[in-house]
Design brief:
Elements lengths: L6 H7 L5 H13 L6 H9 L3 H29 L3 H7 L2 E22 L2 E24 L6 E11 L4 E4 L4 H23 L1
Helix pairs in contact: 2-3, 4-5, 4-6
């Protein structure tokens, strides 16, 4: 799987904040708001609507992870590379119903007298749970392949994606194989 860019760098690349603002936000997050995501800190510091940051997160991270996984998974099932599958399925349309970001908080405690007190704390995004109303695989070979109510779990640390319905990759493989055979037969009949 391709390395996923961090949200801060994407916000810089998209012109939402400058590199200096990103560095300032990371510093403020570390010192004052360790329990908040970078997006929340950027929104607070620079009065950028959280909806704008969420949209960037969805378009540049979540959708990228899901489509990359499908290209790789279908390619493995068909014995083709992701690039070969992308030539057959040039577009995957994702209709997101909603998602949840789960964070892990890590706090270090030290004993001072009779009590333990936190000495440091850090919160990191650990998992993304999402549900797609519709996933449509637009193929160059025929009708699109459509799936509804697809749930995913994405582990941010390991970059492992789990699809609720594991048969989707196999179903796409079967349909693409059928369409490829039908296309081949049509070409032979025409030639």
């Amino acid at each position: 799987m391709a390395k996923i860019l961090r949200l801060g760098w994407i916000l810089v690349r998209e012109g939402v904040i400058s590199k200096e603002q990103m560095e300032q936000a990371l510093d403020v997050q570390k010192r004052k708001f360790p329990d908040q995501s970078l997006g929340e800190v950027v929104s607070r510091l620079f009065t950028i609507p959280e909806e704008e940051i969420e949209t960037i997160f969805i378009n540049h991270i979540l959708f990228h992870v899901v489509t990359d996984w499908f290209y790789r998974e279908i390619g493995q099932k068909m014995g083709k590379t992701s690039q070969e599958i992308e030539a057959i399925i040039p577009h995957i349309t994702l209709t997101l119903n909603g998602y949840t970001r789960l964070a892990t908080r890590k706090t270090t405690f030290a004993r001072k007298g009779k009590h333990f007190h936190p000495t440091s704390s850090r919160t990191a995004l650990s998992q993304i749970l999402a549900e797609f109303d519709r996933i449509e695989f637009v193929s160059t070979l025929g009708d699109p392949l459509v799936f509804s109510g697809v749930q995913i779990e994405y582990d941010v640390q390991t970059q492992h994606l789990k699809i609720g319905d594991q048969s989707i990759g196999l179903q796409v493989k079967v349909r693409l194989t059928q369409m490829m055979k039908g296309s081949q037969k049509a070409a032979e009949a025409a030639g």
